[in-house]
Design goal:
- By secondary structure, the protein is of the alpha+beta class.
- It has a single domain (about 1-145), classed as Jelly Rolls (Sandwich).
- It has helices at about 1-15, 45-50, 130; strands spanning about 25-30, 35-40, 60-70, 75, 85-90, 95-100, 110-115, 120-125, 140-145.
- The strands form 2 sheets. It has a 7-stranded mixed sheet. Strands 4-7 form a two-stranded antiparallel sheet.
- The model is unreliable at about 1-20 and about 145-150 (pLDDT under 50).
Length: about 150
């Protein structure tokens, strides 16, 4: 419950939270498509991300929330599935995409940077961004059970 309350405070402060019925899993919406999402909101969860996963459902994602906006880069160390990595600014506008990023097979792993400063990073199964027609400037919306009644 503490984590959900923290999520609400962080997302509300950034204008990113929308009240939804209690019990709903967090979701994001991009370019008219909704994805169930896992949140990575602290250093440990952001560092671990989707490491060691062998699958990611087509309608699933992971949203990384950072406390500030700055240039970001991700790598695929110990990530076993290919991903689309989408970078969003403080207004949740899509500013950069790294598409069809392959797993890292051997060290050193390459990094995949944003083209502009970002505050939010969304990981989707590889090929999803193209399939839904995501493009720069698209807005990301976030909804979920934040432990607060409507």
């Amino acid at each position: 419950m503490k984590r959900l309350s923290l999520m609400f405070l962080l997302l509300a402060a950034t204008g990113c939270a929308t009240a939804v019925p209690k019990g709903s899993a967090p979701t994001v919406e991009l370019h008219g498509h909704r994805f169930t999402t896992e949140l990575a909101m602290d250093d440990a969860s952001r560092e671990h991300g989707l490491m060691m996963r062998t699958t990611l459902a087509p309608d699933h994602s992971m949203l990384f929330v950072f406390p500030d906006t700055q240039p970001r880069w991700f790598w695929m160390k110990d990530t076993l599935i290919p991903l689309d990595i989408l970078y969003f600014d403080a207004d949740r506008k899509l500013v950069s995409m790294q598409l069809d990023v392959p797993p890292c097979k051997a060290d050193p792993c390459p990094s995949y940077p944003s083209d502009a400063p970002a505050r939010y990073v969304l990981e989707l199964p590889a090929g999803t961004a193209r399939r839904i027609g995501a493009e720069q400037g698209d807005e990301l919306t976030v909804e979920g059970d934040v432990g607060v009644a409507r």
